């Protein structure tokens, strides 16, 4: 085994694992960090110690993955800057609790209590009583299997608990690779579980390298390495030209006005950014091509309330006659406020969608009325209580192009929201303002999650981001065209064709949740039976 190292090494191991995700994309780092952490986990001697080690592992992972979370607080640093370090520490620490819980459960399920004078059964006995993991290939395999199931299970849990925050799921390290196609069958959580199993095989071989025959240890590692390397092979390039087998005849334009978040709502600037969006929309097609059949603007790109937007909508319609436009703005309904997307066609708003999954502490504050009296407001909210939730996910008719599901910013990170409509959409339109996320990791991670939504459902996506990265994504999750960060311009490209509904689109997360539940029930029974015999 690897010699025992200080417990804080697991935090470094978690940070190494994070390098496998965007924007780094070093897939091997997931295996290096995971093996380092697991090689130290066999030294734990209590559930408390195991949970603490995994909490540090999770904290390191989330601190690197979510370091961009300070960016929204720096947009208006005078009001919110003081919150930035607290937001990073508390968010990463809170998410790491899920990982600590996972390893505590895995340790409990696998370890044996050290004989003690008092067999009294109470919480302190469970939590702090000395326990030990058995050594050897079989015992290590048992622990590693439980660890993979437990960590995979809490990744599902954090996707739903307390409104959910499935950012940086482990399966996302495979974006743009052949392995990512497994998400069409098992979804992102299933892909994450398979990734954990692969890490565990490497860890098992390392832990037992001195007791296994060389051909078994090396054979196992080489076999898994071949599978991993095959999965790491890039997807074949996507096509963006209209008329190809993978692209419909529909031509779309994605507008990126590039309004800095610090200037976006300034009265003297807002009109300029709106005019910029109109100008980009009516600009002549590149290379003398035909006019687009659909134009997509970013989130809140119309800087007035819907009931005051007649002039703005008139300007859009005069500039773009007979061309549907999807755009974002805000809507008021008496004392309720909504983050809204509208479809504009022939001078009218033909339909609208109110954002249903809001950002906690960004678009709304729990107990917002009370906190507003203390001078604490949501970052993107207009009033003390922030925005209200819409009625739920649905599709909107977009001219003659079919029905689209519109996702607004944060909604795109939730696998269970994409495709969760009565009718299967012809395409997704994701409108977002990634100006909140800084210029590096945040926007790139957000794009990766959009790619997975298209891949999982077999539905193309039109992604318009205020400051970038705007993109057109095909039904296999490949970016067919994009406009980079902090660029002003537009994309003209063909609408990728949809695929048949994937297995994951039909079954959603229920099969993988069922797998985790069966494991949890089986493990609980085994632990109970073992404790009743001691």
UniProtKB/TrEMBL annotation:
It comes from the Bacteria. Belongs to the CN hydrolase family. Apolipoprotein N-acyltransferase subfamily. Gene3D superfamilies: Carbon-nitrogen hydrolase (3.60.110.10). This is Apolipoprotein N-acyltransferase. The chain crosses the membrane at residues 12-38, 50-70, 82-102, 147-174, 186-207, 214-232, 510-528. NCBIfam families: lnt. Keywords: Acyltransferase, Cell membrane, Lipoprotein, Membrane, Transferase, Transmembrane, Transmembrane helix. GO terms for biological process: lipoprotein biosynthetic process. Its main location: membrane. Pathway: Protein modification; lipoprotein biosynthesis (N-acyl transfer). Its EC number is 2.3.1.269. Residues 255-497 form the CN hydrolase domain. It is a multi-pass membrane protein. InterPro entries: Apolipo_AcylTrfase, C-N_Hydrolase, C-N_Hydrolase_sf, LNT_N. The keyword Transferase applies. GO terms for molecular function: N-acyltransferase activity. It is found in: Cell membrane. The keyword Transferase applies. The gene is lnt. Catalyzes the phospholipid dependent N-acylation of the N-terminal cysteine of apolipoprotein, the last step in lipoprotein maturation. One of its GO terms (cellular component) is plasma membrane. PANTHER family: APOLIPOPROTEIN N-ACYLTRANSFERASE.
């Amino acid at each position: 085994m690897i010699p025992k190292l200080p417990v804080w090494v697991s935090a470094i191991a978690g940070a190494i694992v994070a390098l496998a995700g965007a924007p780094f994309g070093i897939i091997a780092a997931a295996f290096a960090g995971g093996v380092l952490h697991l090689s130290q986990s066999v030294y734990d001697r209590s559930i408390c110690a195991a949970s603490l080690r995994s909490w540090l592992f999770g904290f390191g992972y989330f601190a690197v993955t979510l370091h961009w979370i300070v960016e929204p607080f720096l947009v208006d640093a005078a009001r919110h800057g003081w919150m930035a370090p607290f937001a990073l520490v508390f968010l990463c620490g809170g998410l790491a609790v899920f990982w600590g819980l996972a390893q505590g459960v895995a340790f409990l399920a696998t370890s044996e209590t050290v004989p003690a004078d008092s067999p009294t059964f109470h919480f302190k006995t469970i939590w702090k009583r000395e326990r030990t993991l058995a050594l050897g290939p079989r015992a290590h395999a048992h622990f590693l299997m439980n660890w993979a199931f437990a960590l995979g299970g809490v990744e599902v849990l954090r996707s739903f608990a307390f409104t959910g925050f499935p950012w940086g799921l482990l399966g996302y390290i495979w974006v743009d690779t052949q392995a990512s196609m497994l998400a069409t069958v098992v979804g992102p959580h299933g892909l994450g579980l398979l990734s954990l199993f692969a890490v565990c095989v490497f860890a098992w071989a390392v832990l037992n390298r001195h007791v296994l025959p060389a051909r078994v240890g090396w054979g196992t590692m080489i076999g898994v390495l071949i599978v991993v390397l095959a999965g790491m092979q890039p997807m074949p390039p996507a096509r963006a030209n209209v008329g190809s087998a993978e692209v419909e005849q529909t031509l779309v334009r994605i507008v990126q006005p590039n309004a800095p978040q610090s200037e976006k709502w300034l009265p003297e600037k807002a009109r300029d950014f709106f005019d910029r969006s109109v100008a980009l929309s009516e600009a002549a097609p590149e290379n003398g091509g035909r006019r687009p059949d659909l134009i997509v603007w970013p989130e809140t790109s119309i800087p007035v309330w819907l009931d005051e937007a007649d002039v703005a909508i008139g300007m859009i319609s005069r500039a773009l006659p007979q061309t549907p436009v999807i755009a974002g703005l805000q809507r008021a309904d008496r004392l309720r406020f909504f983050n809204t997307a509208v479809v504009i066609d022939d001078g009218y708003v033909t339909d609208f969608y109110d954002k249903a999954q809001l950002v906690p502490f960004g678009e709304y504050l729990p107990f917002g009325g009370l906190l507003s009296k203390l001078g604490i407001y949501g970052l993107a909210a207009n009033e003390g209580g922030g925005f209200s939730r819409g009625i739920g996910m649905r599709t909107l008719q977009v001219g003659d192009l079919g029905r689209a599901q519109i996702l607004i910013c944060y909604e795109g990170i939730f696998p269970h929201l994409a495709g969760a409509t009565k009718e299967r959409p012809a395409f997704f339109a994701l409108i977002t303002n990634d100006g909140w996320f800084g210029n590096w990791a945040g926007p790139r991670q957000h794009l990766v999650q959009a790619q997975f939504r298209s891949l999982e459902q077999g539905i193309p996506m039109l992604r318009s981001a205020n400051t970038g990265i705007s993109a057109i994504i095909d039904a296999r999750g490949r970016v067919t065209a994009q406009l980079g960060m902090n660029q002003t311009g537009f994309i003209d490209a063909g609408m990728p064709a949809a695929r048949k509904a994937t297995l994951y689109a039909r079954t959603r997360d229920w099969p993988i949740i069922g797998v985790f539940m069966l494991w949890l029930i089986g493990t609980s029974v085994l632990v109970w039976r073992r404790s009743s015999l001691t």
